[in-house]
Amino acid sequence: MTERVGFIGLGVMGRPMAQNLIRAGYRMHVCARRPESLEPLVAQGAVACASPAELAAGCDVVCTMVTAGADVEAVVMGKAGIMAGARPGLVVIDHSTIPPATARRVAQTLAARGVDFLDAPVSGGGQGAIDATLSIMVGGHEPVFARAEPLLRRMGKTVLRIGDSGAGQVAKAANQLAIVLALVGLAEAFTLARASGVDPARVLEALRGGAAASRVLEAMGPKMADRDFRPGVEARLHHKDVQIALDCAAAVGLAAPGAAVAAQTFNALMARGGARHDSSAVLTVVEAMRRPQASGSSA
Amino acid sequence: MGMNLGFVGLGIMGRPMALNLMRGGHAMAVYARRPESMKPLADAGAVTCASPAEVAARADATFVMVSDTPDVEAVILGPGGCIEGARPGAVVVDMSTISPAATRRIAEALAVKDIEMLDAPVSGGEVGAVNATLSIMVGGKAEVFDRVESLFELMGKNIVHIGASGAGQVAKSCNQIVAAVTIEAVAEALLLAQANGVDAAKVREALLGGFAYSRVLELHGRRMLERDFKPGFKAALHQKDMRIVLQSAHELGVALPAAALAAQHINALVGSGEGDLDSSAIYRVLARMSREAGGD
């Protein structure tokens, strides 16, 4: 029997993920706040649903890919949410990046209704979603993971159960912490090159071949060198995620000073109107501290 | 009874300090790189000299007030330096702010010639120098400190013998950490008020009466509100002092993350061509980051 799969949240990430599941033969049901987001999926044969409740009523598995913890709670527990339509035995897989504590709370609430929940945030960006090469970090019960794994493998290449409920979100928080610090580091490196009168593009080439080579350098380095801040990954998302990482650190009593500085840099980027620019625009925050008229080579 | 004193380095700080020493009734010999700097002292009766060595040859105690570690090394140990003129038993008192490690090396080099040295950096700025209200932090032997304590009293108010050679410079480093990080904190607090659309002047006023009171909130906070960054204490000098602080941190292996961050903002200030502004202009750097008013 072909599983009936629902997908809620059809943005830059959700749409290609759902499309990969359609291609794999799943019978897709979709729901999104904006009707125009549904169109490409419906054109490929998906059934459009009016609410998460209606969608859940007709599905065996429901995937969600929305923005923040509050969005997940609304979609799951809100009015006409998944819970309102779910039957016992349904599996809800949340791909959004949200606080681990929220993920655990949602899991507990659903468990009381006999609904299984996996937190399964992803890394790899829009391209990874299209190519089905995402890294998927999963938290939840092992048997539920085993049941969901074939479906997850249609969307991602690295599919790992990290641990119990919330563990996937912890892994994602760690992932984002590493990325935002790397981004700020890159921004400082390119600003140093420019301020010293050295061509950032040449520095980028050199760094690629050395110990500073990284996925972040590959994806964001050219954007910083060209000052091309079209997204990519919108900065507002990293702004949200680094705060999640800091909240996690505070919850376990951990000092994360690097993340704290990175978070302030992203705060400034929001203030500068960069929310929907690519995250590589943190470069502009680093640059802004030094007045532009003083740019060029200096001692 | 008047002593024979010498003073090398007659800038914004050195000139009023030397004049205050002369007011105590002591004979004064002076040297400065730029002859015009010596003029006010000569007018007050000081003997002008051609080198630090010549100053030291005439003095029981020679005071040095120059900019940076290499300058102190040059006027004390370099050609024509104090070491060439000072008599055994004489004292060299370095009131510049320099590296504690370099201070200890200089003291050792002088000790070989039986010349005593105290490190005695100051805090209080030009106003404190003119009004003889400087805070003076002294490192070196206690008996040498006792010999010149009355001279310090002519220049400062809060005079503390901190410990052995270099200890005065360590205290000054501590002073500069607190100043830089507090400026940073006050700037962030006022910017938060501003970004909320709350009257930052009223916030400062309220804070002055509470636990957040500090000299920095009072003086530097006002400069930030009035956007008046006339020095005061120049950012370029604070940058130099923070370099000394972070160099010590590196050598000792002690983490000073807040100081490191403040130093970065001072770097940006100097890199923006604003090194001659008061270091409270860190406010500008922070305002620029978030495109808040007050960035220029």
Explain what the structure shows.
Chain A has two domains: 161 residues, NAD(P)-binding Rossmann-like Domain (Rossmann fold), CATH 3.40.50; 125 residues, N-(1-d-carboxylethyl)-l-norvaline Dehydrogenase, domain 2, CATH 1.10.1040. Chain A contains 14 helices and nine strands. In chain A, the strands form two sheets. Chain A has a six-stranded parallel beta sheet, with helices on both faces. In chain A, strands 7-8-9 form a three-stranded mixed beta sheet. The C terminus of chain A is likely disordered. With 299 residues, chain A is an alpha/beta fold. In chain B, helix 9 crosses helix 12 and helix 10 packs antiparallel against helix 11. With 296 residues, chain B is α/β, with parallel strands linked by helices. Chain B contains 14 helices and nine strands. Chain B has a six-stranded parallel beta sheet with strand order 3-2-1-4-5-6, sandwiched between helices. Chain B has a three-stranded mixed beta sheet with strand order 7-8-9. Chain B starts with a strand and ends in a 7-residue tail after the last helix. Chain B is 55% helix and 14% strand. Chain B has two domains: 161 residues, NAD(P)-binding Rossmann-like Domain (Rossmann fold, 3-Layer(aba) Sandwich); 120 residues, N-(1-d-carboxylethyl)-l-norvaline Dehydrogenase, domain 2. Chains A and B meet through helix 13 of A and helix 13 and helix 14 of B.
Total number of strands of chain A: 9
Number of helical elements of chain B = 14
Inertia-based shape of chain B = elongated
**What is the number of beta strands of chain B?**
9
For the record, what CATH class of the largest domain in chain B applies?
A: Alpha Beta
SSE order of chain B? EHEHEHEHHEHEEHEHEHHHHHH
Radius of gyration of chain A: 21 Å
Low-confidence stretches of chain A: 295-299
Distance between the termini of chain B: 53 Å
| Biggest sheet character of chain B | 6 strands, parallel
Low-confidence stretches of chain B: none
Level-2 CATH architecture of the largest domain in chain B: 3-Layer(aba) Sandwich
Helix content of chain B: 40-55%
The CATH superfamily of the largest domain in chain B is known as NAD(P)-binding Rossmann-like Domain
